[in-house]
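Reference record
================
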Amino acid sequence: MQIRYGYRIELVCEQPTALLTLLDVHPSRRHDLIRPDEMRVAPVMARPGPIEISQHLDPFGNICRRFIAPAGGVMLACEGLIQDSGEPDAADPAASEVAPAELPDAVLPYLLGSRYCETDRLADTAWRLFGQVQPGWARVQAVTEFVHNHVSFGYAFARNTRTAAEAFEERIGVCRDFAHLAIALCRCLNIPARYCNGYLGDIGVVPNPAPMDFNAWFEVWLGGRWHTFDARHNQRRIGRIVLARGRDATDVPMITSFGPHWLRRFEVVTEEVEEEPLRLAPTPTRLVPAKRDAHIAA
């Protein structure tokens, strides 16, 4: 199938403000693009000359853009078209856990505690709840189902400082809180887990009347590869488009502002469309990864 996706975001700034965005489709999906999805950046107030934008890959392999929003603010917009298999998230009930001593070096960071995933506060709880569950896929599915049932979803519950332990205690949150709690519990059980965000439309499910938004889910390392799980929806979904991956939301803020701003407009779209003739977009210029000590997170 083909999926149309995009956004229109308007930020208001009283003074020139440096911005960092992670709103591009992840490099792992760019070979599926049917037409380019270059971000358009336009000043809210008329000003001479274009806004200069630079790009790089962060230490987690996400595409970052940097630019300075002029006084008055900017409008960020994008519309793309991507080829998708049309299949639900893959399932592999036979996938087994990998012992920490045998994990690849690059996977080890996803076994440790992080800003929003306090493994030290949840370790005893994780083993009490899931220690007797069969290791591997069944254990991760048990974590996913628990978080799905334990936490109540609501946009009014959003709080950008809520941690996994707080989500466990408060039992409310939005999709990022579901992901953080599931990630923390998996890590406590010695299962590497990482945070993902991106597009997820109402494809193959009953449409949600709420305005479209970006989504967060998580991936775990089982059987030597990463697998997708979603504690918010607790079902295999169709049409995920990954934007960024990291240890938790700290690593993948969609917009980081180095100065005061407020949001005046926020629109997201992702939907299946009638197929166009397949013309894959050209491979983008290779980006150079940034040094780890130069990475900036919100």
